Amino acid sequence: MGFFQHKDAYKALQFPEFRAYVTGNTLFTIALLIQEVVLAYEIYKITHNPLALGLIGLAEAVPFISLVLFGGHFADNRDKKKIMQVTLSLIIASSVFLLYSSTQLQSADQDFHIYSIYAVIFIIGLSKGFFSPAASSLNPFLVPKEVFANAATWNSSFWQLGSILGPGVAGFLYAYAGLSGSLITVISLLLGVMVCIFQIENRPVPVKTVQHESIWHSLREGIAYVFKTKIILYSISLDLFSVLFGGVIAILPIFAEDILKVGAEGLGILRAAPSVGAVVTMVTLVYFPPLKHAWRNLILAIAGFGVATLIFGVSTNFWISVVALFFTGAFDSISVVIRQTVLRFYTPDEMRGRVSSVNGVFVSTSNEMGAFESGVAAKFFGTVPSVLLGAGVTLVLVSLVALTSKELFDLKVDQKIAED
């Protein structure tokens, strides 16, 4: 059964702070995904331009990537809880502004409405540059070391649950309550996140952290650690390139509106399908962790993601497309659990913020810059050819990595967890 038995499958949920953390993380995910889906659909309905969808990813990625390394430094040297509270307040304030903009100014100036959306997305990216490394580096301190692999699975499961509910609700909210009603829901959920954060105690800065070193030395140290630790570098690189080239989430409004012709409700189902697959897989992984032969399982999962994306690209049937997206989420969830566990057990406590921030750069590059890449590729190559090309690139890259990382196939991640 791996390194924990069935009776311990719910052990992480016995810790109140971890329950508050995953509840807040779930609400945060639901809120931002509702906002992401309705804003993307709003922009595409106005512009009918794939590049406009790609610019959403760019608007979030530029500030996030620019600041997340600094966010990691501050997470290692400052109060993580306070960082989360301040940046969450900024996200809430920007959502309130967008609500005002959409209700008071949209009819007067449609261009201003679109620019307001991009500006708010930019502010969210900026805020997440500090919020994400603080939250990620706080997570390991909420449960004992021996429970963390179980906690990582539950954390991913709750995140995926949010990823189901957010897009699924978003399509219907937009269809029946409009943009304003959707934004009111988002703001309410974000206030719930703040309540959850208040239930977590402050954590002291690890004693090994050097308080007076320069910020540039601190950042170089975190980056150097990632690049010298092959299992971390290779695992986050695989995720980066597979989602960067093989991800299709950003251009789903095009499939919903123009190819499958299923409207906003269908878009919600398409956006939720990968997360449904992920949650089903995550529940299975609670009982059967994928950490024995971890690197082999990671390679196979990324390859499966590429194949499922290829099937989605050639499908013209709504339900076949939904099933294909289901499997992209199922395979990606295996990758998430392995990657999070590797980061937890191969990173020293005093470097968690910086390593999390480097991981954040990779994740944001794959997700938000991948969204930009998807929009650009769809604009210049066509929507379906861009998906097929991306899936092919993913399969080629994972094959090359498998051939050049043979020593990682012998790495015993499950044994390291048992020893720690």
Automatic annotation (TrEMBL):
InterPro entries: MFS_dom (IPR020846), MFS_trans_sf (IPR036259), TM_effector (IPR010290)
CDD domains registered for this protein in UniProt: MFS_MefA_like
Protein name (Swiss-Prot/TrEMBL): MFS transporter
Subcellular location: Cell membrane
Transmembrane segments: 20-39, 51-71, 83-100, 112-131, 173-198, 231-256, 268-288, 295-312, 380-403
Keywords of this entry: Cell membrane, Membrane, Transmembrane, Transmembrane helix, Transport
Domain Major facilitator superfamily (MFS) profile positions: 12-409
Species this protein is from: Aquirufa novilacunae
UniProt xrefs under SUPFAM superfamilies: MFS general substrate transporter
Principal location listed in the UniProt entry: membrane
Membrane topology: Multi-pass membrane protein
